[in-house]
Specification:
The protein is α/β, with parallel strands linked by helices. The chain has two domains: 57 residues, Roll (Membrane-bound Lytic Murein Transglycosylase D, Chain A), CATH 3.10.350; 233 residues, TIM Barrel (Alpha-Beta Barrel), CATH 3.20.20.370. The chain is 31% helix and 19% strand. The protein contains nine helices and 17 strands. Strands 6, 9, 10, 11, 12, 15 and 16 form a seven-stranded mixed β-sheet that branches. Strands 1-2-3 form a three-stranded antiparallel β-sheet. Strand 4 and strand 5 form a beta hairpin. Helix 1 crosses helix 2 and helix 3 packs parallel to helix 5. The N and C termini lie far apart (43 Å). The relative contact order is 0.14.
Amino acid sequence: MAGRSDRLLVYLPRRGDTLEGIAARLLGSADLAWRIADANGQRWKPVEGQPVIVPLVVENPVGITADGIQTIPILCYHRFGLSANKMTVTPAQFEAQLQWLARNHYRVLRLGELTGFLAGREPLPQRSVVITMDDGYESVHRHAMPLLRKYGFPATLFVYTDFVGAGDAMSLSQLRELARSGLVDIQAHSKTHRNLIQRAPAETEAEHRQAIDGELRLSRATLERWLAPAGVQVRHFAYPYGDADDLVLESMLRNGFELGVTVNPGGNAFYADPLLLRRTMIFGDHDLEAFKARVQIRRTAARP
């Protein structure tokens, strides 16, 4: 060790050191290697004898710097299949995307990990990303899940409950298998997938409010009942078609939801509304360069 203060220490790596090993010894957990990488310009391979800064205190939990602000991208997938189209990503495309994230030291987060960051309390790695999948297609179980296991990446699956077991959807047993995997967090996407901001023909405003409440309450209750053996708690909601208005947001609060996701693209800074989080669609007609461009981890500061 070359030096130490209350806030950081300077460590001289030895041959064979890794950031994970340094973090385990000096910060108490290999999972905190990202803090060392962030403090050293994303240098993930320590060089023998070259000083490494080890932050003991997180000074900037919200990621604001002179040149911009940290944002967390939430990616949204739907179907997977052997033939790509706009809504279908092939396994080869998905693996190339996961491989790029892994090689570039991105930390794939569970959606719930954003809660502390959005409150300005908990820092997240500069290279953070969230993976989500909508609806509950069987192809998620068949094509995406093996790749998530291979890379050890978590994902959030938003399910509308009337779809389960129908057509090309997952069966309930498959859904339960994903819930037990430890990698997939299953959350609500409504009961019927109706657009919650559109009033049905002849529906009164009071009936519309009741319908919105029903879509949220019943989808949550059904998922928690189905997945009770896995201890699933439903606190997050993906708005069908990405649409939400004041009535929907009021219902979200009444029904105890903590995070809501849209399909408005872009990353989420710490001051983002937790019930209106941005989410970027990933389509099957995107090449890898287009995917990289959608992983927005920084918002550049406006210049006067």
